[in-house]
Design a protein that fits this description.
Helix content is 10%, strand content 24%. The chain is mainly β and 381 residues long. Strands 10-12-18-14-16-15-11 form a 7-stranded antiparallel sheet, with no helix packed on it. It has a 3-stranded antiparallel sheet with strand order 1-2-3, with no helix packed on it.
C-alpha cells in the first residue's frame, strides 16, 4: 500500500474465520480482513493493474480449482538473471530437466537487481522451505514511485561494501562515480563510433559523430545520473589530454562546471525519441589532473557524454588576424564576412575568427571585428 509507511503482511488462513487479512508488518495490527467459509489455501498481492495505486490483493475461493490439488506452484520464481523481471523455474514431468521461463518483452528500464534487496534475497533463501512462497522486495516497484538507493552489499557478513571499480582506459583513469544508484551503468569505452549505445541505461545509439572525435576513448555514462544532485563523477587524466563533453543542446544555460571549457562547433546526434543533439565542449588537461564531471540536475533532458584524446597541439594565433599576416586589418574583415557564410575549415583561422571566444563564428564576431577596426574598442575579449 503506497499511501502508508512501512511494510504490510498479506496472509490467508486455514482455520478460524478463514479468509485473508492484511496486517501491519511492524506490530501485527489488522489493516483489513475478509472472511472465508473454508481453508483459504493461497493468497497473493502484486501490482498487476496500473489503474489502481499500489498492489492488488487476492486469495483463493472455494469455487476455484487448480491443476495440482490445492498447490500448483513453480520450483522457484526469482530475479534470476538480474534484469528485475522475474523468471519462472519449472521441472519437466519426467524430472529430468529444469526449464527457465522468462519474458520476451524488451525494456529500456534498467534497475538494480532485485537480489540486492535484503528482504527479497532472504525470502529466496527460504522459498523452498515447506510450501513455496514467492519473494517480494521491501519497496514498492512501480511507475511513479521512487526507488531506494542501491544497498552497499557486503561479502560473507563483512563490514566493507563490495568495491566497485571501472576499468581504466589509456586516457581516462580512476573513474569515481558519486551517483551510487546508477554507477554500475558507467563504463570507459574505446573507439567511439556511430552505432554505439550512448548510455549504459538506455538503448538509443549515436547516429552522427564528428570525424575529429571518431575513435576517441569515452565514458558511457548513465542517463539517469542526470537527476543526481551533486557532481556526478570525476576521473584522472592518464596523459596530457583534450577532454570533451557532449551536452544536450536543450540545456540553454551552460553549467557552472563547464564555464571555463570552450564550446566548439562540433555536435553529436543520437536516434532517441526525441532525437537529441549534443553540443561539444573541450578543455586541455595535463597528465594526472583530476577532471570533475558536474551535475545536470534536470530530468527533462539527457545526461552528458565524455570523451578524451591525446592533447591537441597548441595552435599559435592572433585574435582577429585570420589571414595570419600578423596584422588585424580590412583584409581580415573580408575573410570574416566570408566565414560567416561559408564555415572555415582551418583550425588556426577558426580560432582567429572567433573573436568573442564562444566556440562559434557568427555575425557577432564580424561586428566586434568591425568595431575594433573603427577604433570603437581597443581589444578583443
Amino acid at each position: 500500500m503506497t499511501d502508508r509507511p512501512g511494510l504490510e503482511l498479506w496472509e490467508c488462513h486455514e482455520s478460524g474465520n478463514y479468509g485473508v487479512t492484511l496486517f501491519n508488518a511492524r506490530n501485527g495490527a489488522v489493516i483489513f480482513h475478509k472472511d472465508g467459509d473454508k481453508d483459504t489455501g493461497r493468497c497473493c498481492a502484486d501490482n498487476i493493474w496500473a489503474g489502481n495505486k499500489g498492489a492488488e490483493f487476492w486469495g483463493s475461493r472455494p469455487a476455484n480449482t487448480v491443476m495440482d490439488s490445492t498447490k500448483s506452484v513453480p520450483c522457484m520464481t526469482v530475479d534470476l538473471f538480474g534484469d528485475w523481471r522475474e523468471e519462472l523455474i519449472m521441472r519437466t514431468t519426467d524430472n529430468k530437466k529444469l526449464r527457465v521461463w522468462c519474458t520476451t518483452a524488451q525494456t529500456d528500464v534498467r534497475l538494480t537487481t532485485l537480489m540486492h534487496d535484503v528482504q527479497y534475497r532472504a525470502q529466496n533463501c527460504c522459498q523452498q522451505s515447506s510450501y513455496n512462497q514467492p519473494p517480494h522486495p521491501s519497496f514498492f516497484l512501480g511507475t511513479g514511485y521512487a526507488l531506494p538507493e542501491r544497498p552497499a552489499v557486503t561479502v560473507l557478513g563483512g563490514a566493507e561494501p563490495i568495491p566497485f571499480e571501472i576499468p581504466d582506459g589509456k586516457f581516462i583513469k580512476s573513474v569515481e562515480v558519486n551517483d551510487l544508484t546508477n554507477r554500475t551503468k558507467w563504463s570507459v569505452q574505446t573507439g567511439l563510433s556511430e552505432g554505439n549505445e550512448v548510455f549504459g541505461d538506455r538503448a538509443f545509439k549515436f547516429t552522427q559523430i564528428p570525424e575529429k572525435l571518431k575513435g576517441s576513448e569515452w565514458i558511457r555514462t548513465a542517463c539517469d545520473s542526470k537527476k543526481f544532485t551533486d557532481s556526478e563523477a570525476k576521473f584522472t587524466a592518464g596523459s596530457d589530454i583534450t577532454a570533451y563533453v557532449g551536452l544536450d543542446s536543450r540545456i540553454t544555460v551552460t553549467p557552472d562546471w563547464l564555464a571555463d571549457w570552450t564550446m566548439t562547433d562540433m555536435t553529436l546526434t543520437d536516434d532517441g525519441n526525441p532525437i537529441v543533439t549534443y553540443n561539444v565542449y573541450k578543455k586541455n588537461y595535463a597528465a594526472g589532473s583530476k577532471i570533475i564531471l558536474g551535475r545536470i540536475g534536470n530530468g527533462s533532458v539527457v545526461n552528458y557524454v565524455v570523451m578524451a584524446k591525446e592533447q591537441e597541439q597548441q595552435i599559435e594565433f592572433i585574435s582577429g588576424d585570420i589571414n595570419d599576416d600578423k596584422c588585424v586589418d580590412i583584409f581580415d574583415m573580408i575573410l570574416m564576412r566570408k566565414a560567416v557564410v561559408a564555415p572555415l575549415t582551418d583550425e588556426r583561422e577558426k580560432l582567429a575568427a572567433d573573436v568573442d571566444n564562444n566556440g562559434k563564428i557568427e555575425i557577432a564576431d564580424a561586428v566586434i571585428l568591425q568595431n575594433f577596426l573603427l577604433g570603437r574598442i581597443k581589444a578583443f575579449k
